[in-house]
């Protein structure tokens, strides 16, 4: 049974979300503040966090940032902020998806299921493959990325994006293709969202994110992986 942490200071919203998720067979944990949410993530094995951004103690953005320092658990943000720059900030901090308030509980459940499905899908990449004489290693058996011998903490979407690209070195993918493979057919957001995930991924795996050697831009098309095996 998958465990979902719902973080929101409004009891009525938590009640609705809990009701819909439990009807679908999920176990739920509730938190009213950002600090209590962080405590839950540290102490319990949750599979996904539904995170409101307007919390009474610390912001949801800060909560997400702190979660990313200790865990790669998927984060779905609930936000009343509709501006594109606000959503980009959320993705930059490591959120996997966002739902704008007011929201449909059924849509929220569908998004939760989609995120969990993506994070648990097995890929066809070899269990362990290295690039540039071991500078970058993808270990799919443990779903772990190693850079210069140190484990790199990627979000589920960043991990899936890297694996999709690395499975097909030198192949150019359009943004729409990557959206489909990483987010699924039902994703209705802007395809440019993939640009922010690429930027985040480069910050973590590239020796110089401004001059990437692994995930390169194909101008007029999208992106491709160009690392050398070995």
Textual characterization of the structure:
It is built from eight helices and twelve strands. The protein is an alpha/beta fold. It has two domains: 3-125, Response regulator (Rossmann fold, 3-Layer(aba) Sandwich); 128-225, Orthogonal Bundle (Arc Repressor Mutant, subunit A), CATH 1.10.10.10. It has a five-stranded parallel β-sheet, sandwiched between helices. Helix 6 (156-167) packs across helix 7. The longest helix has 16 residues, at 105-120. It comes from Aneurinibacillus soli.
Layout of SSEs?
Layout: E1 3-7, H1 11-23, E2 27-31, H2 34-43, E3 48-52, H3 60-70, E4 75-79, H4 84-92, E5 97-100, H5 105-120, E6 128-131, E7 136-139, E8 144-147, E9 150-152, H6 156-167, E10 173-174, H7 175-183, H8 193-205, E11 215-218, E12 222-225
Parallel strand pairs: 1-2, 1-3, 3-4, 4-5
Antiparallel strand pairs: 6-7, 7-8, 8-9, 10-12, 11-12
């Amino acid at each position: 049974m998958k465990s979902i942490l719902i973080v929101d200071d409004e009891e009525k919203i938590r009640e609705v979300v809990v009701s819909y998720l439990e009807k679908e067979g999920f176990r739920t944990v509730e938190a009213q503040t950002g600090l209590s949410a962080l405590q839950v993530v540290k102490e319990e094995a949750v599979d996904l966090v539904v995170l409101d951004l307007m919390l009474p103690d610390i912001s949801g953005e800060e909560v997400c940032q702190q979660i990313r320092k200790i865990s790669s658990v998927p984060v779905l943000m609930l936000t009343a902020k509709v501006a594109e720059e606000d959503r980009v900030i959320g993705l930059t901090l490591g959120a996997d998806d966002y739902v704008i308030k007011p929201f449909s509980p059924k849509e929220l459940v569908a998004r939760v299921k989609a995120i969990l499905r993506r994070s648990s899908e097995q890929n066809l990449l070899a269990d362990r493959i290295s690039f540039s004489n071991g500078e970058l290693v993808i270990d799919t058996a443990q779903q772990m990325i190693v850079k210069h011998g140190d484990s790199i903490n990627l979000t589920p979407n960043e991990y899936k994006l890297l694996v999709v690209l690395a499975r097909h070195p030198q192949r150019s993918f359009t943004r729409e293709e990557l959206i489909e493979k990483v987010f699924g057919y039902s994703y209705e957001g802007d395809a440019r969202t993939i640009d922010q995930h690429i930027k985040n991924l480069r910050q973590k795996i590239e020796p110089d994110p401004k001059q990437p050697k692994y995930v390169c831009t194909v101008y007029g098309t999208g992106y491709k992986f160009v690392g050398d095996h070995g």
